[in-house]
Amino acid sequence: MDPKAIVLLSGGADSLTCLAWAAREKGWPCLALSFDYGQAHGPELQAARRAAQVFGVPHLTARLDPEPFAASALTGAGQVPKGRNPARIGRGIPSTYVPARNLVFLSLASALAETRRAERIVIGVNALDYSGYPDCRPEFLRVFQEALRLGTRSGVEGNPIRIEAPLLSLKKSEIFLLGARLGVDYSLSVSCYDPDPDGRACGSCDACLLRARGFRQAGLPDPTRYRSGVTPPAEA
Amino acid sequence: MDPKAIVLLSGGADSLTCLAWAAREKGWPCLALSFDYGQAHGPELQAARRAAQVFGVPHLTARLDPEPFAASALTGAGQVPKGRNPARIGRGIPSTYVPARNLVFLSLASALAETRRAERIVIGVNALDYSGYPDCRPEFLRVFQEALRLGTRSGVEGNPIRIEAPLLSLKKSEIFLLGARLGVDYSLSVSCYDPDPDGRACGSCDACLLRARGFRQAGLPDPTRYRSGVTPPAEA
Asked: I need a surface site. Which of B111, B129, B149, B190 has the fewest CB within 10 A?
């Protein structure tokens, strides 16, 4: 069966919520797509594979030459920032910015969507917590949608692939509440930018801080596995 | 030294002309970028490597998972059309369309450009002979440029990577005359969609027909190596 939607699945909490939204709320036959681009947080990819299995969704991990993405703290260039005030995350472009990442991911997902006749791409970008990343903003998604209309076969034939970003305007706590309603087990996900080889979280990178605050604000238990000696980050 | 321009180098005649334009006419320090995406015409990639060597330009071949690109005659899905009237090439989207190819290539080139601090990407798209490909049209390039302005670090910091398409409005004969003026040896290039393993051309696919007509109209000798028994295509 052709998939109806390609779901970009990093293995983090947001993309896991997107998978639940597409597969369970929308009921779309999905194909999950992950990318191995040399990211230091490889346990995310294992989490993505596990999550796709749990959802019974076919899963493809596409390997990318790591060289174009080398200028990021997530691929080994410099340190992942730790212990920042969550209220300040999202101001300015962080060192964890990966050059043109969502542009590349959406482009490859578009190629796969045309090849597999999928109508939609689902991406877990969020413009509130991650406004520091230019490729997580609504204006970027709008212009990318326009590129699909003008630059692909399906677009010029009048059926452009549609970009779905269901989390775009949600707070982290709202994302977790949506996932909880859809029965998501967030222990499947790895959000940390700097996990240990077993996928246990550092507790102090931006992604850990936002995640812990999200569970707290949602009034949900935090199922994150932290490294030994690390306690869940407290209120900032 | 950081390159000033990333040149997309397929190994065909157009991208070879672009390399000459960027390196010799503009004098930019270049980095040539090729993609191995499972294309049947692998000898093009060998041609790209050789051409970069001749120009003394560093060269990167990025391997891409072939699965997203599987729905094309260039990647093995169906037959490459042969013997078409050159005047009709460019009407409608041909079976040699590769899903979202230039979107993917430009996106990866953009990532590499940000990582290597290059200011420009040079691409050999041409809207006259290849108007059947949606991703070879000026309106697509314009919206991609806008995606770079809005969706990348360099863009939001006010220095978006610039897309250069010096061949966009040239006829094939004009492309060859430009190359001849810049000392390009077109025997280095492989245009054929269906070459033999030695890179010798079939003489009857769209790319062979347009190339032969271009040399003829430019009044230049055709240095193409054809398969044994094949003579250069005559006037249609």
From this structure: B149
| Residues within 8 A of B (CB atoms), A 177-236 only | none
Can you give the length of chain A in residues?
A: 236
- Structural element, H or E, at residue A50: helix A43-55
Query: Choosing among B31, B103, B145, which should be mutated to test the A contact, i.e. which has the most A CBs within 10 A?
Result: B103
DSSP per residue over A62-74, as a string?
EEB-SGGG-SSGG
CATH code of residue A98:
3.40.50.620
Q: Is residue B227 part of a domain?
A: no
Tens-place pLDDT, residues B135-147: 999 999 999 999 9
- Cα–Cα dist A68/A94, whole Å: 18
CB atoms within 10 A of CB B43: 19
Burial class (CB in 10 A: 0-12, 13-18, 19+), B233: buried
Closest alpha carbon within chain B to A156: B134
Q: Are B23 and B184 in contact (CB under 8 A)?
A: no
Instruction: Please indicate if any CB of chain B lies within 8 Å of the CB of A64.
Output: yes
Task: Give the structural domain span for A21.
Answer: 5-185
- CA atoms within a 13 Å half-sphere pointing along the CA-CB vector of A236: 18
Cβ–Cβ < 8 Å for B236, B208:
no
Cβ(A96)–Cβ(A74) below 8 Å? yes
Is B147 part of any domain?
A: yes
Nearest CB neighbour to A68, from listed B108, B135, B148: B108
C-beta separation of A45 from A36 below 8 A: yes
A63·B65 Cβ contact <8 A: yes
Chain A positions touching B114 (Cβ under 8 A) are 71, 99-100
Q: Do B115 and A144 touch (CB under 8 A)?
A: no
pLDDT digits (tens, 9 = 90+) for B52-92: 999 999 999 999 999 999 988 888 878 888 888 877 777 78
Contacts of residue A101 in chain B, CB cutoff 8 Å? Answer: 111
